[in-house]
Amino acid sequence: MEADVIKLLAAGLAMGLGAIGPGIGVGILGFGALQAIGRNPEAKGSIFTNMILLVAFAESIAIFALVISIVLIFVA
Which parts of the sequence are marked as the site Reversibly protonated during proton transport? Predict the structure, then answer.
């Protein structure tokens, strides 16, 4: 295989595998937040605020994977 093909394959794997974890995590987080709101509707504001903050933290992992894949394509 040529070096360019290997670089593109590595970048694709880095982004694909780096996005699986945050995707699953955000799904579980949303499920838990909706269950909590269903049990205690008065706490909706607090639960929603915490959920948005944690979703941002989870998605930062996917952004790091994107940066790594871009570095693999253009720098390595």
Answer: 59
